[in-house]
Amino acid sequence: MTYVVTVDTCIPEGTPEMDPLQRAGAVALVEDGFDSVRAIEGPDGVAVELLDTIVAVHPGGALLKVIVDAPALEFAEDSVRALVDELLERSELLADWTIERCEVELHQDLARKSLDAAEGPDAPPDDPATRKARHAGGPTPEGAEEVYDGEAKAAAVRSRMLGVAAELRSFPPAVFGVPGEEGDGTVDGQGEFTVSPASAALAAGALVHAIDILVDELFEDVQVLTQEDANVAECEGPLWHLERLPDRYALRYDARFARRFLVTVIAMTTRFTDGSFERLSCVAEELALRFLLSQAIVTLELHGLLDDEVSAALDAFAGNVYEDMDHEWLYDGATDGIDVSAVGVGLDGAPIAFGSWFTPFGEDRYVHPSATDEPEAAAR
Question: Do the beta carbons of residue 297 and residue 89 sit within 8 Å?
Answer without folding.
Answer: no
